[in-house]
Design brief:
The structure is a single chain. This protein has 592 residues and is α+β, with helices and mostly antiparallel strands. It has three domains: 203 residues, Alpha-Beta Plaits; 131 residues, Rossmann fold (3-Layer(aba) Sandwich), CATH 3.40.50; 228 residues, GHMP kinase, C-terminal domain (Alpha-Beta Plaits), CATH 3.30.70. It is 32% helix and 23% strand. It is built from 20 helices and 23 strands. The strands form five sheets. Strands 1, 2, 3, 4, 5 and 11 form a six-stranded antiparallel β-sheet that branches. The chain has a five-stranded antiparallel β-sheet with strand order 6-8-9-7-10, with helices on one face. A five-stranded parallel β-sheet has the order 14-13-12-15-16, with helices on both faces. Strand 15, helix 11 and strand 16 form a beta-alpha-beta unit. Helix 15 packs across helix 16. The chain is elongated and about 100 Å long. The two termini are 45 Å apart.
């Protein structure tokens, strides 16, 4: 592993030394994690007479990309808003710099032969026992005269690096723990030909000495795979990692299926990972099953992956003063992306989203007014929660009927088979046919329902790649949690001709907007379809859903629930990416 040493300098305003030192005694855990993720180690900041000198070692392969990742990291930017106001950049810094980069003085050596830079790398940060020292002196003596300083074997010094600015020389040293700083300064005075010893700087921060906070993650973590391990390792870079496991009972409640591995076996495997400090089974229930355990663990950070984010988790962290961090799914280098969903045998059966017109597939609604329902078939890239309005109950019937994948054959015929299998003779509450059709038919489909009919009279498919890709980039799902077993959407309905007409008109407008790829019109029609549904089925929404909608009202062009309400997902339409939202992949017709 090659190592690049980086030295830099900046001024510190005279009124801020005490505050700066105190702040760096309590660095945000997310900042420390970003430093490690940007392949920076052995990062130390020293202070003397209004000057801050930093030294670190870079071990990555793309310095510019890693520094750009740090500059765009939200937590790091928040940290910089605190530190930047205390600092005073040097006038001679390069364009675009805040800290001025120093030139390393090549050929300088001031330590044991086995510790010289370029002869043998210093030990990894976690294995070092040396003390870190820094000195500053005017640019005089040998350096000012254009000569290289003399090599020096200073007792106790393991290795040293020297950096120069237009007016000063900075030296970073690592020395044996009992080495006297005065003796090192005297040795450096001789090496550089200085009139007086260089001034010792005071260390105000070091990555190794920074306190590690507590990090908490929670999930099912069934069928442990490389994606889980990559997630745990990245989370552990933020601090000491505590893992909360969903109990077998909670997973059954949320997913509608039993785990492959019991909670005891899942805990045993996760406890065996060296990046995990402790694993425990959550004692609560539901999507916030870990809430009762937070008082005991007392984490500084709660971390979720992109499809594990829910507004309820974020609100809980805000209420308790816990930092909330969302991570992207990034596989370990050279390994394929993994999720439990993709490993389960049932994973190839699609889900369904109705975009507009939902309920018109029910004769007791279409009797008031005929109309169309717009559906898309969704690849199971995410393990969507059970009872979430994604046709999950129909999907379970498809799994029972066809096991792990849709069979080959006429899609409409297959959808009729699935619809009949789900609704045998004598069924009291018949599931709408859009569920079966939405799962089986690939792409986007417009299902035309005549007055009082269960099955559409005609179907208009869309397989145009430009339209499907456009649609995928404008829809974002926010997790609300599954519907509770006592939810009854058919209570207090107000189904009438005006409501059904409004729903049908909104579906037609939504279809036209999608074909035109008009995001504003799509969002407006999407929203009107939802409002027409709620007018007839008021139990679809509750106060929590209304609060969520208000939160995103200024960021989204439209919204609706993923199904009949009571939970599931809030789907937002936006021209701009919503990082907290889950994106979907529409199944193409060349897929199974």
């Amino acid at each position: 592993m090659s190592t690049r040493a980086v030295g830099s300098v900046i001024g510190l305003k005279p009124e801020f030394p005490a505050q700066y030192v105190a702040l760096h005694a309590n660095v945000f855990p997310g900042v420390l994690a970003r430093i490690r993720q940007s392949h920076i180690r052995n990062y130390t900041i020293f202070l003397h007479d209004g000057l801050l000198f930093s030294h670190f070692e870079y071990t990555g392969t793309d310095f510019d990309a890693d520094m750009a990742a740090m500059a765009t990291d939200e937590t790091t930017r928040q940290w910089w808003t605190l530190t930047d106001q205390m600092q005073q950049p040097c006038d001679w810094r390069a364009a675009g710099e805040w800290w001025a980069t120093l030139a390393e003085l090549e050929g300088f050596a001031a330590g044991r032969a086995d510790g010289r830079i370029g002869v043998q790398p210093w030990a990894p940060e976690g294995e070092r026992t040396a003390v870190r020292l820094a000195f500053v002196a005017p640019r005089s003596g040998a350096v000012a005269a254009g000569r290289s300083p003399a090599s020096a074997s200073i007792p106790g010094v393991i290795g040293a690096r020297a950096f120069v600015s237009p007016t000063r020389v900075f030296v970073y040293c690592e020395a044996e723990p009992d080495t006297a700083a005065d003796a090192v300064a005297t040795g450096l005075q001789w090496a550089f030909g200085l009139d007086t010893p260089p001034a010792q700087m005071t260390a105000v921060f070091h990555t190794e000495g920074a306190a590690r906070g507590r990090v908490f993650v929670s999930g099912c973590f069934d069928m442990l795979h490389s994606g889980h391990v990559a997630f745990f390792r990245e989370a552990a870079s933020y601090g000491d990692l505590y893992v909360g496991l969903g109990s077998d009972a909670t997973i059954f409640q949320l997913k509608g299926r039993r785990t492959i591995n019991s909670q005891a076996e899942r805990k045993y495997m996760i406890d065996a990972l060296d990046c995990v400090t402790e694993c425990r089974v959550n004692t609560g229930s539901g999507i916030l099953d870990f809430e009762p355990d937070l008082d005991d663990i007392r984490p500084d950070i709660l971390i979720v992956n992109e499809d594990g984010h829910t507004p309820a988790k974020e609100a809980l962290c805000r209420e308790r003063g816990i930092e909330y961090v969302k991570l992207r799914r990034v596989p370990h280098a050279g390994l394929p992306p993994r999720s439990t969903t993709t490993l389960r045998a049932e994973s190839l059966i699609p889900f369904r989203i109705d975009l507009a017109g939902g309920w018109l597939d029910q004769p007791y609604v279409s009797t008031c007014c005929p109309g169309s329902v717009l559906t898309i078939s969704i690849e199971p890239t995410v393990e969507f929660n059970d009872r979430s309005g994604m046709a999950s109950s129909t999907r379970r019937k498809a799994i029972a009927l066809w096991h792990n994948a849709l069979p080959h054959g006429d899609p409409q015929l297959l959808a009729k088979v699935l619809f009949s299998f789900e609704n045998p003779p004598g069924t009291k509450e018949v599931a709408g046919s859009q569920d079966a059709l939405g799962i089986v038919l690939p792409g986007l489909n417009r299902l035309h329902y005549e007055r009082g009919e269960y099955w559409p009279s005609r179907i208009e498919p869309v397989h145009d790649e430009a339209i499907l890709s456009w649609l995928e980039r404008r829809m974002f799902l926010l997790t609300l949690g599954p519907r509770v077993s006592t939810f009854r959407v058919l209570d207090e309905t107000r189904i009438d001709e005006a409501g059904a007409q409004a729903l049908a008109a909104a579906a037609d407008a939504c279809w036209d907007a999608i074909l035109a790829r008009d995001t504003a019109a799509f969002g407006a029609a999407f929203r009107r379809s939802f409002e027409a549904q709620v007018a007839m089925f008021p139990k679809m929404v509750d106060d929590g859903i209304r609060e969520m909608i208000e939160k995103y009202r200024d960021r989204a062009l439209g919204w609706k629930l993923s199904g009949a309400g009571g939970g599931g997902y809030l789907i937002l339409v936006s021209d701009e990416p919503l990082n907290e939202g889950i994106t979907v992949r529409i199944r193409r017709r060349d897929s199974l």
